[in-house]
Amino acid sequence: MLKQFGGKITPELKKRYAQSPNWKSGSFQNLEETTMDIGLAEMPGMLWKMFFSKGNTIPQQNLPIQAFDKTTFLAPDDSLKYIWYGHGVYLLRLAGKTILIDPMLGPDAAPIAPTKSARFSENTLQLIDDFPQIDLLLLTHDHYDHLDYASFKKLLPKVKKYYVALGCGRHLEAWGAASQTITEFDWWDSHTFEDIKITFTPSRHFSGRGIRDRAKSLWGGWVLKTAQTALFHTGDGGYGAHFKEIGERLGPFDLGFVECGQYNERWRAIHMLPDEAVQAACDAQIKRATPYHWGGFKLAFHSWTAPAEDFTAAAQLKHLEYTLPKLGQLMHLDQPAQVDPWWKDIT
């Protein structure tokens, strides 16, 4: 079996997953009905368009990534610091700890597919060489555009601890992580890591790395809270009532990483449209939002800049504060938001 597929499902694991209230009829389930409006007869044409049509769906040049300044990143600071590396990758410095979220830094979002879904930036695996020790790695779900074998193996010597969605631990163990370093979370589970309270929250999505493991691990978002700072990462997924519940139970949030990219009207149930992403931020009581799930790969038909442009327009209508960092740019929560349309210099 290809290493990329990850860990196998066993009867013992299924018994453990069945203890979750979110496991029903042999798989994990969303909180509300979630289906995509795509017929089987349409799939070949859609896949052809996905992989072979271009237009403005990909940048005309590789997206640059700012160099990592380890000294500045690690310098003592009361404020949250974070760096976005395109798509879903975030490197955080919070309460004196270094946290990495969904570290897919490989060159291809579809490594087992017959055609590539190439990254918009070059040599991203080499970024790991400059990363400091990772105190905690967070994983929202096991899709290939968020969990990458090559990235994981390169990170393995640097990572001390893993907090992951329930069911994802089997992949990490299959790839060499020690079981005692892995903690799996069901929805609403909370653990305290040093001075940071971390909660896994529901999202409206799915999971799987092969034909036989669809929805055999959970998916969701993360809330990180210290005495000074509250951060909400929505995880991938469609709009739903869970955002308001998250805001009521755990909000408000100083900063939100909000999924916005690779969407389409046909699959809005599992990937929010831009106006829905902004509404989700408002529902969750996010004070400053930044859209992610763009700037990395072409996994839909919209222009590569549409997520940023349409999120901006929707946020302005709702009077939601937002920020749009460049790839690799070191951001400080206590500094003014970055709202310059930097992508216009590239297209």
From TrEMBL:
Residues 98-294 form the Metallo-beta-lactamase domain. The lineage of its organism: Bacteria, Pseudomonadati, Bacteroidota, Flavobacteriia, Flavobacteriales. Pfam families: Lactamase_B_2. GO terms for molecular function: N-acylphosphatidylethanolamine-specific phospholipase D activity; zinc ion binding. Coiled coil: none annotated. This is L-ascorbate metabolism protein UlaG (Beta-lactamase superfamily). PANTHER family: N-ACYL-PHOSPHATIDYLETHANOLAMINE-HYDROLYZING PHOSPHOLIPASE D. GO terms for cellular component: cytoplasm. InterPro entries: Metallo-B-lactamas (IPR001279), NAPE-PLD (IPR024884), RibonucZ/Hydroxyglut_hydro (IPR036866). Gene3D superfamilies: Ribonuclease Z/Hydroxyacylglutathione hydrolase-like.
